[in-house]
Amino acid sequence: MLTLATRLRGMDDARLRRAIELRGIQPNGIRDFFDLAEAFLDADSLQRTLAHLDRHTLALLALAGESTSVADRAAGEEAPTLGELARGLSQARGQGGADAGLVTVADVAERAALLDSLLLAALIDDRLSPYDGVTAQLQAWPAQGLPGAAALASEPAPSALPQVSTEEVRVTDGLAAERAFAAVSSIAELVNEVAREPARELSRGGLGLPDSKRLAAAMSVDLESVGDHVAIAARAGLVGRETGHWIETEAGVSWLQRPTNERWGVLADSWQAALPVDVRRILSDRPGLSWGDGLRSFVTWLYPAGGSWMDEQIRIFTRDAELLGISAHQTTSTAGAAALAGDIDAAVATMRGVLPREVGQVYLQHDLTIVSPGPLSPAIDARLRSLADVESRELASSYRISATSVNRALAAGETAESLLEFLRGISLTGVPQPLNYLVQEAAARYGRVRVGHAATSEHPNRTYVRSDDPALLGTIAVDQTLASLGLVPAANGRLVSRFAPDAVFWALTDARYPAAAENETGEIVHLRRHTVAQPAPAAQSDAAGALIEKIRAADGGESEAPHAWLARQLDVAIRTKQTLTVSIATPGGAVVDYLLEPASIGGGRFRARDRRADIERTLPLSSIVRITPAP
């Protein structure tokens, strides 16, 4: 612990903060660097961290701990080099029947850097030295039913996953394509729906029931799978949380404009990137691999201490693979195999050949509905959604145009001419007379009700509603669907509300009033009912930062080292029987280093066993220049 406490004290705040966050150290009860070191070496904390490490990293850590014992280091022996560890692991794998050539110095160096960043070991001058508490934790594993050092390094992986027949691969690809199309379509509806109305995240996690039901209806999925689709969209960055609500992101806006196969590629790429490298490697050999129990056996072998955490990870990534068509009936699809291999372009090209073709024209009907004969191209679908409401979403989707939806398009800047021109361009049946009449009439009525800003010092968000038609304004004033706005009569025959103009405008629009927003000069301004989630600014102060500030203040800096810091070092060394290198200033001004095992402190002096001379020494505390843990 003394070695780690000394290292923690010498780290800069940025590295110290990262280590605390990586290990999930809680500040409770930590007063100084010794308490912090103790928290890092706590058995439960170590086990949680080791559970997230793969077998190869654990084998490196265990071998490094066994290569140089505490007694060896006290006798002056150095920790093993990365090259020595690579050779040791290669030899152990060879004895276990695995390919010894897989272990390279570069691979060992990468894993050693990870162990160093997690403060499980110290990587100094190409030598890796695990902390004693970490080695003790690993040495206790066999008694807990977990593999020891030898088993970690030598036990071969389970047999390769079985291959299904060529005919079964074709069936798998067909089913995977259906699932991929369904998933992309559902997530597109999810992104559109949270752009229209954000979904609230509960404080305990998960979506509220009303929002879950709304999203399930929009996405045409079971209520239980809404959270799964939200998780996939969030992992791809298409939706994000802002002020406790799920909302569309800028990435989600651009994703909606892409073809279906490219949309799928974004989802598949984010899924693949979240997989452990070794799991990705075993699944990406070829299409037609049957996952089943073989995959679970491999993951259990790869993460021997993973336990329930890894079981949950397997459940999530196999569930999402089935949803996205990367697998079907736990068998890798052709596109899924390419995605797993990291070749997203090839995966997208493969999926393009099996997904339904997108269409660019629709049928406009006299009952004001629009029917698509197939999946619409994203650009046309987005434009249609701005002037119509989606009624059903299948391979052949349908939309309905109403006065309210046209008013929504006009509020966003469309005109009757631009809307009719667009409809004529995509229609296979022309523009029916009822639809032409609806658009023209809605455009003529648009703006009969005006909404503007009427802020005062007491009411900065105050909004007015005006109209040249007193009867229409009177109807608005008594409309119970608008009661929540708190509209009250004011001067000049207007109504005023304490809510902001955009809230009042959209409430009137939803209530089917021909409302338009205007500026201070009375000119119509166009509003879009669309916001995107913005990354939250980094917190200026957090638990890790506060903890670092507290222990730095308690440490007192270098000026206090001859007192509190040295006393704590000696106290810990006495309790743990740790050997120290103690630098003593002699009366003549020279500094002499002693290899000592402190025994007691009292009366301004300390008694210790000199490990080199094998005698007992009593030295004044005031003569100590510095103390460092023995190598």
Radius of gyration: 34 Å
- Specify the number of helices: 28
Binned, the helix content reads 40-55%
What structural class do helix, strand and pairing data support? alpha+beta
Q: Give the overall shape, derived from the CA principal axes.
A: flat
Describe what you observe in this structure:
The chain is of the alpha+beta class and 631 residues long. The chain folds into five domains: 41-154; 166-354, no CATH class; 363-444, no CATH class; 449-525, MutS, DNA mismatch repair protein, domain I (3-Layer(aba) Sandwich), CATH 3.40.1170; 556-629, Roll (SH3 type barrels). It has 28 helices and 22 strands. The strands form six sheets. The protein has a six-stranded mixed β-sheet. It has a five-stranded antiparallel β-sheet with strand order 21-20-19-18-22. The protein has a four-stranded antiparallel β-sheet with strand order 8-9-11-10, covered by helices on one side. Strand 20 and strand 21 form a beta hairpin. The radius of gyration is 34 Å and the shape is flat.
Topology diagram in text:
Elements: H1 2-10, H2 13-23, H3 33-40, H4 43-50, H5 55-67, H6 70-74, H7 82-95, H8 105-117, E1 121-124, E2 127-130, H9 132-139, H10 149-154, H11 166-196, E3 199-200, H12 209-219, H13 226-235, E4 239-242, E5 245-248, H14 250-255, H15 260-273, H16 277-283, H17 292-302, H18 307-324, E6 327-328, E7 331-332, H19 334-340, H20 344-354, E8 363-364, E9 369-371, H21 378-387, E10 389-392, E11 398-400, H22 403-411, H23 416-426, H24 433-445, E12 449-453, E13 463-467, H25 470-478, E14 488-489, E15 495-497, H26 501-510, E16 515-518, E17 524-525, H27 543-555, H28 561-576, E18 580-585, E19 591-602, E20 605-610, E21 615-620, E22 624-629
Parallel strand pairs: 12-16
Antiparallel strand pairs: 1-2, 3-5, 4-5, 6-7, 8-9, 9-11, 10-11, 12-13, 13-15, 14-15, 16-17, 18-19, 18-22, 19-20, 20-21
